[in-house]
Amino acid sequence: MSEQWLEQIKWNADGLVPAIAQDHQTGRVLMVAWMNAEALSLTVQENRAIYFSRSRQKLWRKGEESGHVQQLHDIRLDCDDDVILLSVEQLGGIACHTGRENCFYKTLKEGEWVAVEPVLKDPKTIYEK
């Protein structure tokens, strides 16, 4: 398969594009991460979410340490060609490194961010290996 489709994407100055991971059944947003061209190409090839970690400056196969892999169901590009939307099956039901279903677990209440989503699994048990 030709990778000409990658050229249509408007990458930022660092060669990255934001990627939203959404549960393919519920539509719930699980997380937002970044992808470079290699990560996006590998995501399509391997049929699983692969991101680019800005903090570690390397590819990050979602679930490589936690086992919480994101199986790809669909991939879309927004109207401005600068945001990727991944429709995924979140294996293990946990997308967040805090042990929660998704990364958007805080809500603004009376001027403070309050955690409103439960921890499903202690992160210490997820990442201790």
UniProtKB/TrEMBL annotation:
Q: Which reaction does it catalyse?
A: 1-(5-phospho-beta-D-ribosyl)-5'-AMP + H2O = 1-(5-phospho-beta-D-ribosyl)-5-[(5-phospho-beta-D-ribosylamino)methylideneamino]imidazole-4-carboxamide; 1-(5-phospho-beta-D-ribosyl)-ATP + H2O = 1-(5-phospho-beta-D-ribosyl)-5'-AMP + diphosphate + H(+)
Instruction: List residues binding Mg(2+).
Output: 78, 80, 82
This protein's pathway: Amino-acid biosynthesis; L-histidine biosynthesis; L-histidine from 5-phospho-alpha-D-ribose 1-diphosphate: step 2/9; Amino-acid biosynthesis; L-histidine biosynthesis; L-histidine from 5-phospho-alpha-D-ribose 1-diphosphate: step 3/9
Highest taxon of the source?
Bacteria
Which EC number(s) are documented for this chain?
3.5.4.19
Going by the UniProt record, its keywords in alphabetical order are: Amino-acid biosynthesis, Cytoplasm, Histidine biosynthesis, Hydrolase, Magnesium, Metal-binding, Zinc
User: Where is it localised?
Assistant: Cytoplasm
Q: Give the protein name, as stated in the record.
A: Phosphoribosyl-AMP cyclohydrolase
- List the top taxonomic levels of the source: Bacteria, Pseudomonadati, Pseudomonadota, Gammaproteobacteria, Oceanospirillales
Corresponding gene?
hisI
